[in-house]
Amino acid sequence: MATGLIGLGLLLPALLLSNAFRMPSGSAPDHALILISANAAMIGWYAGILSLVLRSRFAPALWALGCFYLWLHVAIVFHLKHSWSHHNAYEHTREVSGVGSGVYVNYAIMLVWLIDAVWLLVADRPKIWRIAVHAFLVFMVFNGMVTYGSWYSRSLFGLFVIVSVAVWLDTRTSRLPEPPASE
Fold first, then answer.
1. What is the C-alpha to C-alpha distance for residues 32 and 36, in angstroms, rounded to an integer?
2. CA distances from 48 to 101, 127, 168 (A)
3. Distance (Å, rounded) from C-alpha 85 to C-alpha 160?
4. Rounded to 5°, angle at Cα 152 from 95 and 45
5. Dihedral, CA of residue 96, residue 97, residue 98 and residue 104, to nearest 10
6. Rounded CA separation 69/163 (Å)
7. What pTM was computed for the model?
8. Residues of the chain with pLDDT under 70
9. What is the distance between the alpha carbons of residues 78 and 36, in angstroms, rounded to a whole number?
10. For residues 141 and 106, what is the distance between their CA atoms, to the nearest angstrom?
């Protein structure tokens, strides 16, 4: 029962965000649901990373949920802002970042996170893969925050990095053997 309520609570924002698809395509390029969906994806990413660092039993599900919210965000952006046009997305990316082909990096983020989330749901991944995926995602989220983020989202990202490193260091050091007692 409790797991079902938690699941409903985590998916309820998706139901609210799905209202974006009731609007005509391309009709609201600056709609608040674009920012809200981006924040939902980042919160999902944060929760997923922290649950992975803490080795929570919910980590695979939270990591997959964060990935789901990223895909939902991209769908909302494509619907409300780009009228489902890759060309429009390419041009917008070029206008904002100076490099239109950067849109392909966004697609790569989606694909890498999806592969990693599905893989984690069915099996553990090799350490080198985990390191590569998380390094890539942290680097790309940082770049996304610099390019598209507000001062608020940049501050949250910085806070997240500090907290994540502190939690990771704490979990690493708490597993060290106790020093021998001095006599």
1. 6
2. 28, 17, 13
3. 33
4. 85
5. -110
6. 22
7. 0.82
8. 1-9, 168, 171-183
9. 15
10. 10
Taking the chain, what is the end-to-end CA distance rounded to the nearest angstrom? 53
What is the spatial distance between Cα 181 and Cα 183, in angstroms, rounded to a whole number?
A: 6
Q: 123: phi > 0 → left, psi -120 to 50 → alpha, else beta; which? A: beta
Number of H helices, E strands in the chain: 7, 0
- From the list 165, 157, 168, the residue with the least C-alpha distance to 46 is 157
Max CA pair span of the chain: 77
Centre a 10 Å sphere on the Cβ of residue 70 and count the other Cβ atoms it contains: 24
Residue 173's pLDDT is 65
Reference 54, options 178, 169, 177; nearest CA is 169
For residue 71, what are the CA distances in angstroms to 2, 146, 155?
27, 20, 24
Cβ proximity of 38 and 20 under 8 Å: no
d(CA 123, CA 162): 29
Q: What's the pLDDT at 2?
A: 47
How far apart CA 137 and CA 70 sit, in angstroms, is: 12
